[in-house]
UniProtKB/TrEMBL annotation:
This is Chromate transporter. InterPro entries: CHR_Transporter, Chromate_transpt. It is a multi-pass membrane protein. The lineage of its organism: Bacteria, Bacillati, Bacillota, Clostridia, Eubacteriales. The keyword Membrane applies. The keyword Cell membrane applies. The chain crosses the membrane at residues 12-32, 84-107, 113-134, 146-179. It comes from Proteiniclasticum sediminis. GO terms for molecular function: chromate transmembrane transporter activity. One of its GO terms (cellular component) is plasma membrane. Keywords: Cell membrane, Membrane, Transmembrane, Transmembrane helix. Belongs to the chromate ion transporter (CHR) (TC 2.A.51) family. It is found in: Cell membrane.
């Protein structure tokens, strides 16, 4: 028998993800910012640390990052039903919108108004992503070791173009190494 509170949360999660799937532009990072606002700040269902952990695991898995994170979050809050409904909620709007857009693609493709709207959307998404990153930074970077790992990750990603999966694996190894060093010194 399914726990009614988990079932109610799963349904709430579906409608939340369905709504932001329709109205949030900029991909996974913009959706993550909305998750931070809704589930950490407003509802207080999870902490920033938990969202950051879910994000780390979701990014480390193959597939669509935000679908992975939604699945982990949904499972955490509503079991298997929560996982299924969260992924369905986040992907269904894109499927529906793209189904309609593909019917009219040739008319949209060369419309100068559509092109200008997309330029504006892309420019406005960057601050949203940056805002989410700055909020999560407080949970992720707590000491000098965190600053070192984060700085190294930025260097590897932006300057050297290293694959994100490799950067996450290096960060995990650095965390383990630093934990071992700290335990050895204590």
């Amino acid at each position: 028998m399914t726990d009614p509170s988990k079932q109610n949360k799963a349904i709430t999660i579906f409608f939340f993800f369905f709504k932001i799937g329709f109205f949030t532009f900029g991909g996974g990072w913009s959706i993550l910012a909305e998750m931070q606002k809704e589930f950490v700040e407003k509802r207080q269902w999870i902490t920033s640390e938990e969202l950051l952990d879910m994000t780390s695991v979701g990014r480390s898995l193959p597939g669509i990052m935000i679908a992975n994170i939604c699945s982990i979050f949904g499972y955490h809050m509503g079991g298997v039903l929560g996982a299924v409904l969260s992924v369905l909620g986040i992907t269904l709007p894109s499927f529906l919108i793209l189904s309609v857009v593909t019917l009219f693609y040739t008319q949209f493709r060369e419309n100068p108004y559509v092109a200008k709207v997309l330029v504006g959307i892309r420019a406005s998404v960057v601050p949203i992503i940056l805002s989410a990153a700055l909020k999560l930074r407080k949970s992720a970077i707590r000491d000098k070791a965190g600053i070192l790992i984060a700085s190294s990750a930025v260097l590897l990603s932006l300057v050297l173009g290293v694959n994100n999966v490799f950067i996450v694996l290096l960060g995990a190894m650095a965390g383990l190494l630093l934990m071992g060093v700290n335990h050895g010194l204590s």
